[in-house]
Prior knowledge:
Distance between the termini: 5 Å
Bound molecules: zinc ion
Order of helices and strands: EHEEHEHHEHHEEEEEHEHEHEE
Number of helices: 9
Radius of gyration: 18 Å
Number of strands: 14
Helix content: 10-25%
CATH topology: Metallo-beta-lactamase, Chain A
Amino acid sequence: MKVTILGSGTSQGVPIVGCKCPGCTSKNPKDKRLRVSVYIETDIKLNDKPLRILIDTSPDFRQQMLVNNITDIDAVLYTHYHVDHIMGLDDIRQINQLQKKHVELYANRETAQRIRQTFSYIFDENTYKGGGIPVVDLHEIDLEPFDVIGQKVIPLQYMHGPTIVYGFRLCDFAYMTDCNFIPETEYEKLKGLKVLVIDALRYRKHETHFSIEEAIEAAQKINAKQTYFTHMTHDIVHDEANKKLPTHIEFAYDGLKFEI
Ligand SMILES: [Zn+2]
Ligand SMILES: [Zn+2]
Ligand SMILES: [Zn+2]
């Protein structure tokens, strides 16, 4: 499968509006971070094309589709309901129009409820007149492995401060954004990974995200062949920060692609 990092930035994005710090004023494209999301072209074939799965619809989703020439998505997996992970949902309309099909959405019960509230116009046809609405099917998932149009997905559950977040394992790839505590049961599900993408916010500790030091500790315990950090703030200046990481761990950046 092929994975593209569509966004690697924290909820404000990088640069932060009005900030003049070294990260925000860096000329390196790797220091321009849209809000977090990944795009997966799986090995499953659907009408002779790869089954395509998006994780989260960030507020930058439209921009991410333009930059990466994305014109097809079959399903979206939601990690949690925070606005930096859901607010781009309306832009699924363009996929509906281009591909003449609806898009399957998967979320745990709480996230699904919040999506129905936040985007009530999508789920209650009587509330919105005279504009296009996304055509989607929202499926509630729990901790049981589930099938996305032929692709097996193993949900991972962990904490993000007080919020429960779902990560996802597809074959030997796992995605775990917005995380500051992983229960022992979930480490069991993470054995034998080729690539892990995991939250690593900044150097200083934070109440709801792993710091770099905490993320290194979790990554080394999970022991994927390669780990990429995501959801970074402007404190991370990519090239110099990357040099300080242990082997097999790197900071992701927008547009990073890898095959598994
Ligand atoms: Zn987030
Ligand atoms: Zn800054
Ligand atoms: Zn969050």
